[in-house]
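Possible regression after last week's pipeline update?

I re-ran a chain I had predicted before the update to compare outputs. Posting the input and the new output here so someone can diff against the archived version. Not blocking, just want to make sure nothing changed silently.
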Amino acid sequence: MILLGTGTSVGVPAVGCGCDVCKSDDPHNQRTRASAIVGLPEGNLLIDTSPDLRLQLLREGIGLVHAVLYTHEHADHVFGLDDLRLMQFYLDGPVPLYCEPVVEQRIRQSFDYAFTPGPSPSLVPQLQLHRIGVEPFELLGAPIVPIRLYHGRECLVLGFRFGDVAYCTDVNHIPPESEELLQGLDVLVLDALRTTPSATHFTLEAAIEAATRLMPKQTYFTHVAHELDYAQTNASLPPTMQLAYDGLRIPLA
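New output (post-update):
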């Protein structure tokens, strides 16, 4: 797994901000919008299409995406979808997208031109939508376990477990039945927005508490805002926890 982006919805540096983190020379403080890619036996599985997707794929030298898996429908996780337009030529067919119905609705509304017959189909993304829920399924030769998470009171999102690695972004509550699915992990990638309260994200303190309960061998905090400096924050964290950064590579068993 490669964490392509580990930043919040506006990214870090934030436009117009002159705080110390936004002005930092530490590359770990330069966070594009949250996404990840997983190398599976039959291809590369992208998690979310962030608005920074093109630059993320170029930065990491990833030339082919075989399928996309979506956590939820928010703009910072969906609106880079058009950047996959070249993949239909490499795949010799449409790009498979796996998502819940609410995400499908957002994609069909926001990228309506991809679903409208026109004279030049090669100029628009060729997409093949597949609906998923919380039932485990197989994709690109590997079992995937969806995990129900809450992103505020009304927004439901999915985390995903790949063997002993789990990716859980944009979350402020993990229900008990989902915590059971997150036991015995080698690595947990978990939302931790900032230190001050948020209605839709774990604070750093809440994320630490959740990781302490779940007891993975290693936790990386993602979807991080500009309030958290990489080096200073990591110096205050337990040895088995640290802030993630763009380009972080996580081995899959």
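Follow-up from reviewer: compared with the archived run. The chain has a mean pLDDT of 96. Marking as no regression found.
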